[in-house]
Amino acid sequence: MIDENKPNSNEEVEKIDTTDISEVEQKAAVPPVSGRSDKKVAHRTRASALFIAVTLAAVILILLLVFVLQNLNSVPIYFLGLKGHLPLGVALIFAVVGGVLLSSVIASLRILQLRLRARRLGH
After folding, report:
1. Where are the alpha helices (DSSP H) in 29-87?
2. Spatial distance between the Cα atoms of 108 and 114, rounded to a whole number of angstroms
3. What does the CA dihedral 51, 52, 57, 63 come to, rounded to 10 degrees?
4. 37 inside domain
5. How many domains does the chain contain in total?
6. Which of 26, 78, 111, 116 stands 20 to 30 A from 15 (CA)?
7. Looking at per-residue confidence, does 59 or 21 come out higher?
């Protein structure tokens, strides 16, 4: 027996949904995108950003202090013909600070180069 409701393999069935989108949203209880929700959202302020930055800086400083206190062994340091002794933790922090300063100078020169190029092109 052939079921009349089922299409044959040779027939193509095409249904076009003409339901209005707003009706679908109402049925699904989806709030409109442009509407305001009843939830109150806490916005970030400069004060909250400053608080987070200060807290993060304090945590980093505590970790650095622990690092220096755990690496107090004195090591010889040679730089440009000078010789001295520093605790290992302090010497490593000096190396990191020097690397940060060097990369900051290089990044500043690149930013200056891009600004000059943009000014010449009239942007």
Report:
1. 46-70
2. 10
3. 130
4. no
5. 1
6. 26
7. 59
**pTM over 0.70, yes/no:** no
Residue 115's closest CA among 57, 107, 58? 107
Write down the pLDDT at residue 97.
92
Asked if 122 and 110 touch (Cβ cutoff 8 Å), the reply is: no
**Is residue 97 one of the residues assigned to a domain?**
yes
For residue 47, the one-letter residue type is: A
Residue 35 has pLDDT above 60, yes or no: no
Return the pLDDT at 25: 54
Give the length of the chain. 123
Q: What are phi and psi of 121, to 5 degrees?
A: -80, -10
3-state secondary structure of 34: coil
Alpha-carbon 35 to chain mean position:
29
**Number of helical (H) and strand (E) elements in the chain, helices listed first:** 3, 2
Q: How far is CA 50 from the centre of its chain?
A: 17
114 and 93 Cβ atoms separated by less than 8 Å = no
User: Which residue range(s) make up the domain with 85?
Assistant: 45-121
Beta bridge partners of 79: 82
pLDDT reported for residue 79: 86
